[in-house]
Write a structure and sequence with these properties.
The chain has 248 residues and is α+β, with helices and mostly antiparallel strands. The protein folds into 2 domains: 43 residues, no CATH class; 199 residues, no CATH class. Helices cover 32% and strands 33% of the residues. The chain has 7 helices and 12 strands. The protein is globular, with a radius of gyration of 19 Å.
């Protein structure tokens, strides 16, 4: 696949060489963008070494940040597509245990599975390789998932009820236990924060939530190493998201 990102071409070349001069590369890219100069790069012919030893909070924040550049890859650094698919199934089954999201792991298929290189546009030393996947169960419930290539950790997900694809949002709202009242929504997002805390092994607190009857959101604060990262999720009658957006 051809990708017209000069920034990522420079980042890729320097990462292969050892990732020593990335800050200078970003400065060069900024100038090139202003001049509207682009070249075409075959991303499948380049190998990548992601930045080592990113903390879990850094990984979560990076995939949720709007300030990133991405480049599709042929495979990961640690996993290939079959291993990534297998790993994601086990991780998701553990993550969703006890959550308000019901996905049938007895039969599902992986419709999409692709490796992606992510880089912080302002700090290129912050980068990683993830797998973006779409899982579909027998009831057409869908999980759009971002999983860390190095650790296998689920960093982000979007859940869509199968009913929603057929336009039956009333049924999906009832099944999810959301849409009837503020109390039901509070119970849903409280269970989501408990699910995240158990999975990540970090304190996660429900910091805020707003309920309007048709669209609602929640904010979960993840604590670790003396830091707090606030993550944003959206709840609709069609589904629910986790770690959708980083709040500054």
């Amino acid at each position: 696949m051809k990708v017209r990102y000069y920034l990522l071409f420079i980042a890729a070349a320097l990462l292969v060489a050892g990732s020593f001069f990335l800050p200078n590369a970003v400065a060069a890219v900024t100038d090139s963008r202003r001049l509207d100069n682009f070249i075409t790069v075959d991303s499948q012919s380049v190998s990548f070494d992601a930045a080592p030893e990113l903390e879990l909070l850094d990984r979560i924040a990076l995939v949720a940040s709007p300030n990133t550049e991405t480049l599709p890859l042929n495979t990961g650094q640690v996993m290939d597509a079959p291993l990534a698919s297998e790993t994601a199934g086990g991780e998701l089954e553990g993550l969703l245990r006890g959550s308000p999201l019901e996905f049938d792991f007895s039969w599902y298929e992986v419709e999409e599975c692709s490796a992606v290189f992510i880089i912080d546009a302002e700090d290129p030393s912050v980068n990683m390789i993830v797998w973006d996947m779409v899982l579909l169960d027998r009831y057409r419930n869908t999980l759009n998932v971002t999983m860390d290539d190095e650790t296998g950790t689920i960093l982000k997900l979007i859940f869509t009820w199968g009913f929603a694809e057929a336009g039956d949002t009333e049924t999906s709202s009832t099944v999810m236990g959301f849409g009837g009242s503020d109390e039901e929504f509070y119970d849903t997002v409280s269970r989501m924060t408990e699910m995240m805390a158990e999975y990540y092994g970090l304190p996660v607190a429900l910091a805020d939530y707003q309920f309007s009857g048709s669209l609602a959101y929640y904010r979960a604060d993840i604590l670790g190493g003396g830091r707090v990262i606030s993550m944003f999720g959206v709840v609709r009658p069609t589904g629910l998201t986790m770690n959708e957006k980083l709040l500054y």
